[in-house]
């Protein structure tokens, strides 16, 4: 999942003036009046009606209107002369925040997914405008003092929490620093927004292609091969987009072709992003040091569950140690299998990892990954997921065919509970040019009780039914369930009075836990049988096949954990460096991989420049594993009572998802489990 905004991962009201599916009409211009005509003077001199604004101009004006409304509300708050109260200070500040989030996060979505380049450019402009205002706001000392002066001693707990967290955020922005320092901090923040957009854009738009012969597609599923015919040059084009890249790396048996595609993927953004990344790292270093922190790693972890860079490092090393024995066993099994093909082999390359993992699973675990693909046609899987979550959480999804949307392929559903609409979801699930290349949940509208219902967007890159059978690998199914976990968190957590707590608004290192936990439903025989029907026979997926898939899925857990710790350590290491501008980020990646990864570094790759999480997550990629530890503990209640036990499902809905960020994550987990979370469930899972 990608988190998008300091203000929260939400997106604006969908006022899509000028989206490609909406007609933009221009009023007719009166024809010129001939000399000597009998028209009146008033008619003859009437100017033509102005043309309708271009879609990107109308959108940018919408963004500016939100900013203007926020600026006006700031003036209203600062003009208060009587005693500060919730009504005259916090309520208008809440409305101000809604305007900012409604502008900023819509822009962040459009910059990543809108099919029109001019709209993407306007969205990027809106991000700059909104973030500049947000940065200015975070350093507004009079506003900070105004909120500080509100007496909340008799207020409810949510309001007290709002004030405490808001004042904390102001201080972490440097509001209490001298004028000169505040100005420098704002300048750094504004520049970070600009270079961050550039970093993401380069990755998103740098789609690379390798040209292969038909024989090099050996091992690929028949539907994949059919969907990739040879071009006029007799070559087959395979891109770094997910629907091309992931199946090829999963099943392709031509090792040179695998390596070529792997190199292309890890070189997206190279060489341009090398300097951009170093600039991001240096700006973050400057920012943290001006606030009195030793590094950005120390700054960014302070308000998370983990609390410090030191604790993050200890956690990374703890997981590395816990996974070490199993990871070495995984690697030894891969190498043993490779030696059957090449008796002289001494190592398994990372681009060979999934190839030999598939062979091990097929030969040692009696499971072929391609055997389950016929059970997962895209549309059937999507509809099955909707049915599962509807049953779990007492919901209904109503398709909204005429809803405004940014692309015709987007599906829109209203989410209903007890007959009332509680939100809306958008499913943008297929790749296209200029679109975000991975899988993420983008908030759309932050839910605010009595003001606006939550809306959220699933952005993925699954096979497109318009281009073939669109059969999904089980990895795709797991990803779909994972991201839908975020979607449910956004919608069910969206009934909050204070926008600060709406939806996915918990500590950043808890955010992934609900999604990672929900992956379990994609492995359950009963859940899968409810929708996974064979494309030809329509028979449900056999429980025995799911059992084999699950058993095979246990292989590689150790090496996967080590790989995650490589990413986590890389993100942390880059953000504690004292001189980022002189860094060779590829050298750092090579050193970190040697210590934390299980596979040798592949020369010629430049992972950091294509690692988008270095911008979005900065130093805290560890959060995926931290969240997984909690997710495995949350699952203990479901395993005891059953994944589709409605009592447990609804308790989880109400105690975790529906609370949004209104309580600390540790408190939410304790309220659900009846105890503090611990490491035991994760450790047991790792060693199963």
Number of continuous helical runs = 27
- Per DSSP E runs of 2 or more residues, the count of β-strands stands at 7
Q: Tell me the CATH topology of the domain at 374-556 and 624-686.
A: Neurolysin, domain 3
State Rg: 26 Å
What's the arrangement of strands in the largest beta sheet?
A: 3-4-5-7-6
Distance between the ends: 27 Å
Largest sheet: number of strands, sense, barrel closure: 5 strands, mixed
Class from helix and strand fractions: mainly alpha
Overview of the structural elements:
The protein is mainly alpha-helical. Among the domains are: 53-138 and 140-173, Endopeptidase. Chain P, domain 1 (Glutathione S-transferase Yfyf (Class Pi), Chain A, domain 2), CATH 1.20.1050.40; 207-266, no CATH class; 374-556 and 624-686, Neurolysin, domain 3 (Orthogonal Bundle). 53% of the residues lie in helices and 6% in strands. Strand 4 and strand 5 (420-428) form a beta hairpin. Helix 24 crosses helix 27.
Please sum up the structure shown.
The protein has 688 residues and is mostly helical. The chain is built from 27 helices and 7 strands.
Topology overview:
Blueprint: H1 41-45, H2 55-78, H3 86-113, H4 117-138, H5 141-148, H6 157-173, H7 179-205, E1 209-212, H8 222-226, E2 236-239, H9 242-251, H10 255-266, H11 272-290, H12 296-301, H13 309-341, H14 353-364, H15 378-393, E3 396-399, E4 411-417, E5 420-428, E6 440-445, E7 455-459, H16 474-492, H17 513-518, H18 525-529, H19 543-553, H20 557-574, H21 585-596, H22 607-610, H23 613-616, H24 623-641, H25 646-655, H26 665-673, H27 680-686
Parallel strand pairs: 5-7
Antiparallel strand pairs: 1-2, 3-4, 4-5, 6-7
Helix pairs in contact: 2-3, 2-4, 3-4, 4-7, 7-11, 13-14, 13-20, 15-16, 20-21, 24-27
């Amino acid at each position: 999942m990608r988190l998008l905004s300091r203000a929260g991962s939400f997106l604006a009201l969908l006022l899509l003036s000028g989206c490609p599916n909406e007609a933009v009409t221009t009023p007719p211009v009166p024809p010129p009046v001939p000399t000597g005509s009998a028209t009146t003077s008033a008619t003859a001199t009437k100017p033509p009606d102005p043309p309708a604004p271009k879609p990107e101009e109308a959108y940018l004006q919408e963004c500016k209107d939100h900013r203007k409304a926020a600026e006006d509300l700031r003036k209203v708050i600062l003009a208060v002369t009587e005693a500060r109260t919730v009504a005259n200070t916090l309520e208008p500040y809440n409305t101000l925040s809604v305007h900012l989030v409604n502008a900023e996060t819509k822009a962040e979505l459009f910059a990543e997914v809108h099919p029109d380049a001019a709209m993407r450019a306007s969205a990027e402009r809106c991000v700059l405008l909104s973030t500049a205002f947000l940065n200015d706001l975070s350093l507004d000392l009079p506003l900070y003092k105004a909120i500080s002066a509100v007496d909340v001693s008799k207020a409810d707990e949510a309001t007290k929490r709002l004030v405490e967290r808001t004042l904390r955020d102001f201080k972490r922005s440097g509001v209490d620093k001298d004028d000169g320092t505040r100005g420098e901090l704002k300048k750094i923040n504004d520049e970070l927004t600009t270079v961050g957009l550039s970093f993401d854009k380069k990755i998103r738009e740098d789609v690379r292609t390798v040209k292969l012969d038909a024989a090099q597609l050996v091992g690929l599923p028949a539907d994949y091969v059919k969907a990739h015919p040879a071009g006029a040059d007799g070559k087959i084009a395979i891109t770094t987009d997910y629907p091309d890249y992931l199946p090829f790396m999963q099943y392709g048996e031509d090792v040179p072709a695998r390596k070529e595609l792997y190199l292309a993927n890890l070189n997206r953004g190279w060489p341009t992003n090398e300097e951009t990344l170093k600039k991001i790292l240096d700006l973050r270093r400057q920012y943290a040091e001006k606030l009195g922190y030793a590094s950005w790693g120390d700054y960014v972890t302070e308000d998370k569950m983990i609390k410090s860079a030191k604790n993050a490092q200890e956690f990374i090393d703890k997981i590395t140690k816990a996974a070490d024995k199993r990871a070495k066993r995984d690697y030894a099994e891969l190498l043993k299998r490779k030696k059957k093909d090449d008796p002289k082999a001494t190592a398994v390359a990372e681009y060979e990892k999934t190839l030999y993992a598939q062979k091990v699973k097929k030969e040692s675990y009696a499971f072929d990954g391609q055997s389950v693909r016929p059970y997962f046609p895209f549309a059937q899987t999507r509809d099955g997921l909707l049915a599962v979550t509807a049953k779990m959480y007492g919901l209904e999804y109503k398709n909204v065919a005429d809803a405004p949307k940014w692309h015709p392929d987007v599906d829109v559903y209203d989410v209903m509970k007890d007959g009332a609409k509680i939100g809306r979801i958008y499913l943008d699930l297929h790749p296209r040019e200029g679109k975000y290349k991975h899988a993420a949940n983008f908030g759309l509208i932050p839910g605010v009780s009595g003001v606006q219902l939550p809306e959220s967007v699933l952005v993925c890159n699954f096979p497109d039914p318009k281009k073939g059978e669109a059969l999904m690998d089980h990895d795709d199914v797991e990803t779909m369930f994972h991201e839908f976990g975020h979607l449910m968190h956004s919608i069910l957590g969206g009934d909050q009075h204070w926008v600060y707590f709406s939806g996915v608004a918990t500590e950043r290192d808890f955010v992934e836990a609900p999604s990672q936990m929900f992956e379990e439903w994609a492995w359950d025989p009963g859940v899968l049988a409810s929708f996974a029907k064979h494309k030809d026979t329509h028979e449900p997926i056999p429980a025995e096949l799911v059992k084999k898939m699950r058993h095979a899925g246990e292989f590689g857990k150790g090496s996967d954990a080590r790989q995650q710790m490589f990413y986590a350590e890389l993100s942390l290491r880059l953000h504690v460096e004292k001189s980022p501008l002189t860094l060779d980020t590829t050298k750092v990646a090579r050193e970190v991989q040697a210590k934390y990864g299980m596979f040798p570094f592949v020369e010629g790759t430049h992972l950091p420049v294509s690692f988008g999480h270095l911008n979005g997550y900065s130093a805290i990629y560890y959060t995926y594993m931290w969240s997984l530890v909690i997710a495995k503990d949350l699952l203990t209640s479901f395993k005891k009572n059953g994944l589709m036990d409605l009592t447990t499902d609804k308790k989880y809905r109400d105690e975790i998802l529906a609370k949004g960020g209104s309580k600390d994550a540790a408190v939410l987990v304790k309220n659900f489990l009846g105890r503090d979370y611990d490491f035991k469930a994760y450790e047991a899972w790792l060693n199963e």
